[in-house]
Amino acid sequence: MSDPLHRIADAVADVTESNAVAVLTSLGFQRDRQPAKKALRTPLPPPGAPSGVSSNVEWV
User: Fold this and answer.
1) Measuring CA to CA, which residue among 19, 1, 17 is closest to residue 9?
2) What's the pLDDT tens digit per position in 14-30?
3) Which of 24, 45, 56, 57 could disulfide-link 29, Cβ–Cβ 3.0 to 4.6 Å?
4) Is the per-residue pLDDT at 33 higher than 80?
5) What CA–CA distance (Å, rounded) separates 14 from 20?
6) How far is it, in rounded angstroms, from Cα 2 to Cα 9?
7) Contact 29, 22 (CB under 8 A)
8) How would you write the chain as a 3-class SS string?
9) What is the pLDDT of the chain when averaged over all its residues?
10) Residue 48 backbone class (left: φ over 0; alpha: ψ -120 to 50; beta: rest)
């Protein structure tokens, strides 16, 4: 493990859960925060189906 990771691990080794909650709360962390919803995406066409898209890209 790198030296910065060792320092981080040493710094948080003795932190209790209640102390961590207090610090995160003071920094604006919200315990009941919902994760971001996944954005809807346009589905890809099925494999082997003609897409009707042509490309004139020249790879160099």
Assistant:
1) 1
2) 888 888 888 888 888 87
3) 24
4) no
5) 10
6) 11
7) no
8) CCHHHHHHHHHHCCCCHHHHHHHHHHCCCCCCCCCCCCCCCCCCCCCCCCCCCCCCCCCC
9) 79
10) left
Tell whether the model's pLDDT for residue 49 goes beyond 70.
Answer: no
| pLDDT bucket at 53, cuts 50 / 70 / 90 | confident
pTM across the whole model: 0.36
3's tokens: 């030296």
Joined tokens for residue 59: 């790879």
- Gap between the Cα atoms of 15 and 8, Å rounded: 12
Tokens representing residue 20 in the block: 């961590």
